[in-house]
Amino acid sequence: MNVACRERRSALPRHSFCGWARVLCVLLLGLSLASLAKAQGTTPLRIEERELPIYLLPVKDGVITEGAQLERVIDFPADAFRTWFKQVYLPRSPQDLPKYSFERVTAEINVVGDNALITTTYEIVPRVSGWIRIPLGLRSAVFRSEVVTTPTIECFVDPPRNDSSQEGYSLWCEVPAQAEVPLAPLKREPIKIQVTALIALSSRGDEISLDTNLPADTKCLVKVDIPRPGAIFSHHGSMVVKSLPEPPPPEHSIQHLEFAGGPLGLHWRFDEQSMVERSVQLQVNGVIQATVDVETVITEANLEVSSKTIAFDSFEVQIDDNAQFVAPTTPPADYTVRPLDSPGQRFGNRLLVELAEPTKEPVKVSITTKQTEPVPSERGKRQFSIGQFDVVGSQFQDGVLNVVAANNVHVMWDTPSSMREQSIRNGEIPNLRAAYLYDHQPATLIVNTQPIQSTARVKSEYELRVGALDSELVGRLTYRLPRTYHDDLVIDMKGWSIDLVDTQGAAQWQPSEDNSDQIILPLASETGAETMSVAPYRTIKLTIRARLDHAMRNPSTIELPWPIPRAEPWGTATVKVIPTDDIEIRYQSEMSEGFQLDRSQSQESELSGQRGTIVLRAAPSQEALKLGLSLIPVVPRLIIASKATVELQEGNPQSLVKHELLYEPFHCVREKAIVNLPEGINVSEVMSVLINGTNVAGQLVDLSSGRTMEYPLGDVAPPYRIELKYTSPIETMNADRGQYQISLLTPKTDDLLAERIEVDFKPLELTFQTPHEVDVLSPTEDWQSFGTALQPNTVQIPGNQFNQVEFSAPFLSPKTDDRVVVDFHWLQVALTSDERRDRATYALRTAASKLNVTLPKNADYIEVYWNGVETAFTQEKNHITFDIAEQNDAGGNRLEIWYKYPAGTGIQSSMTIDSPQIENAIIGSGQPGQEAGYSYLQIISPGNWLVLSASNMSEEMEWTWQQGRYRRKPRLNQDQLERLAKIHEQSKFPAGMDRSLYSTIGPIQHVHVTAAKTSYLMLLFSGIALAGLLFLFYVPQSRHVLVFGIAAIGIVGLALAFPDFAVVIGQMSVVGIMLGLLGIILYHMFSYRAPVKSAVRARSSSDSQASVPVQPPSNSAGHSAVSTTSLPATVPSSGQSR
Known about the structure:
Elements: H1 2-40, E1 55-60, E2 63-64, E3 70-73, H2 78-89, E4 100-112, E5 115-126, E6 130-137, E7 141-143, E8 148-150, E9 155-158, E10 169-175, E11 191-200, E12 202-204, E13 207-214, E14 220-226, E15 231-234, E16 240-242, E17 253-259, E18 262-270, H3 272-277, E19 282-292, E20 297-307, E21 312-319, E22 324-326, E23 335-339, E24 350-359, E25 363-371, E26 375-376, E27 382-386, E28 389-391, E29 396-405, E30 409-413, E31 420-422, E32 432-438, E33 445-451, E34 456-466, E35 470-482, E36 489-492, E37 497-502, E38 510-511, E39 518-521, H4 528-532, E40 537-549, E41 557-559, E42 562-563, E43 567-569, E44 573-579, E45 583-587, E46 595-597, H5 599-607, E47 614-618, E48 626-633, E49 637-647, E50 654-666, E51 672-677, E52 686-691, E53 694-695, E54 699-703, E55 706-712, E56 720-729, E57 731-734, E58 739-743, E59 746-747, H6 750-754, E60 758-761, E61 764-769, E62 775-777, E63 786-787, E64 794-797, E65 804-808, E66 820-831, E67 836-846, E68 850-854, E69 860-866, E70 869-870, E71 874-876, E72 879-883, E73 893-900, E74 910-913, ...
Parallel strand pairs: 4-14, 19-29, 34-43, 34-44, 49-60, 49-61, 66-76, 66-77
Antiparallel strand pairs: 1-2, 1-3, 4-5, 5-11, 6-10, 7-11, 8-11, 9-10, 12-13, 13-18, 14-17, 15-18, 16-17, 19-20, 20-25, 21-24, 21-28, 22-25, 23-24, 26-27, 27-33, 29-32, 30-33, 31-32, 34-35, 35-40, 36-39, 36-42, 37-40, 38-39, 41-48, 44-47, 45-48, 46-47, 49-50, 50-56, 51-55, 51-59, 52-53, 52-56, ...
């Protein structure tokens, strides 16, 4: 720091002295020039004439002519110029600029009868203010509204003139002007003008035309809307047909045209054939209600018919073949229905519906049919086909079919696959038996009727529990019996062993005498309460519990008990099949009879927790039920999924692991979870364990085979989510490569395999939570890891192989600071005429175990001292390496490197000096308050040599007066440098050798040193001084005041700006100056003048004056102080000797 201050004190004054010296030179030079100007006298004034300006005009034969050659004109007749200006120059600028411009014109044409209503919108941009005339067109039109302008301005319509009826209307508008600019409009924004007019259409045959016009040379957009489909347009060739933004309505013809304005000749006609070919797409929504009696079915269909394309006026409805149309008592006003004659029944039984007028809107039609010819069925039943009301040609038909039956008839049907049964709301429709939704026609439902007086109805619900060896059945039968029914109830058990029959007191069951598989339930007499009931039915509920031993393991079919045909099914029978825990069941439709899988109910049962349960529905007309099942033995299984997050920190030998295990048991029950505890993890390092969010305490089991932790699972429901939080030590595998290993808790599955429980492991999702990159390594060939894109530093590895995980994390390796901080550096270069020896000294701090140093080229005879002790080293070319045995307890280490150069390498006039470079070194980090942190270069040279400069370094020397002369002296001598470096003292160099000192901040590299012999410098500068003095002595004309002034300025400036060089030059020039002065003195002392003998005559004053040359006044001032007589010349005397 002190050295820096000294450099600053030595540098700043130099720059200031140099600046003052330059200012002084400028002032002296200015004074000299001023004196010369004053001597020469005042310059006389001059009068100059200004030239007249030059004008160039196109002139030919004395007349200004356009296009002629330009000529210089000084004077020209004013009339000719005025004529040329008015007739030629002014017409160049256009006079009639447009006062407005059209942005766009939009015309919307709606055809109404024989006329067209056109709404036209004009958008203009005014260029000037005041009244402007705007053409509107619309010839042969009649205005139907006032002209509307936006913004509102004053305007009036100019009707077409008689002589120009083809132009159409015009509009005069007054555009307001700006306040400060009279001719400019108020705002150059578009003005919208809207006009509504009526134009008569003209027709020629089947072609209709519209003849009018719009403003010419303007972008016009025409939108034509005709309320009739099938129009074919024709127009001028210059018009362009634009695409429509959306499809037109079916009853309209729309076209968009774009053209450049002018006459609008638009023609169109209608193609009747295309109208005929367009088909009608009908959409039908129906509500069909069939009232079923024993021998009659009356069906009323309410149809809502609409068209999706064009209007319709009639349609046909196909009904059942044996149905008869029943005409309404009051005919409807908007439509008529009549049977359609179809000879030979080619089209079936159809009805024709004719509307009063064509329409596309929905039309409600009511049709009533009657069926009195049933088809005979089994056991005296009567069969009808109901629900067919098919609108011919319609592809969109949906609706609902309601079946209504009287109390005296029993109705049975088979549920068709094309219909969906709908839930019935009580009281909505009286005597409603069923409701079905259909989405197409024909939709038919086959029903069977039977008088209710002799029919018993039964509703069956079964719950079947199927095992590998036997099955258990719980059947719930609900009988609905008429009051007149007194027969016994018979149930065919199909080989099932009865465990319990509960009739709730309505009957006493007994086995059949003829068939042991049947049970008979004689009906008991009605109680008093049942006798007093007015209901036409009595209800009896039975519950049967039975068991069936399978003849073979895993049977393929099972038959269920079923009432014999004395009772008809009532509704749909349901069967719920529940498997035991050791099997899984699959429904086999190809082996079943009378069953249909109810997927929605099966899915609800599965979601409610009844695993593997399926729900079946039996058809009401089925008398015997055969259920086909596939029994699959269930293997107990445990699926284990795991996910772990490992937190790594630099310098922490422990890793924090958040481990999550998910146990999903299937067909097995687990009472506890067991995990393996690695040797490197203690019980105390397991911080917390949560099972399904509940804290659980574990038990350590230490066996010879290993340590385990057991956690109870009895109080929670599966699946089990086990969250472990523990610390795992980081084991170092290869520190140089940054490879480590951690241990994780793993599930123990040996006891599960002993219990024949299969274990499936899902891959472990392992995440390293650190900002650095971590690479997971594979310890074996079977161990494969693959990355996932879920989050960084995440891999998935096999779930049963993660007890120990190897990974690469170079950031965990302890970082050693191998930098070398150099606090002080001193390079001593000792030079002779043919030898050179260097001494490099470093005061440094480092934690490295060895140092690598690069020496300068050709360095030899190397010696290394570490803290004053010579140290062995290895050398490879100019690189040396040595180990650091011990560090200095004080915190600072000293390194000395001595080396020499080959013989013959001595001091030269130009040299390059480099100091040894320590690898990974930081030089120039001095400590505050100490004379350190800098690099010093000390050059010891012979006394007859002078070191002039060292590039890129600061000079650490000053001139002092010693022994009668100025001498260069370093600011720091060798003793001071050795004390700063804290090294042992070296024997001093002879006092006759010259010492130079330079400093810098940072390493000493590529320092170019310039030196010279003092004898050469003395001869050079002394010779120059001697030659200068002799030149001034023998050339009297050079002894001018200006020459001496410039020389004085140069010497003073050099002394102030570069005092060091001034001192050196002064010292080296002393010999030359002394020799020059000595020569001049000797010349005056020993010069001899020979006497001249000549006649001397007296001269008059006039002759004396005439003999003296006349000097100009300008030179008298400059040579007033200098004699013009040459020093060596002799003046004639009067004859007396000197």
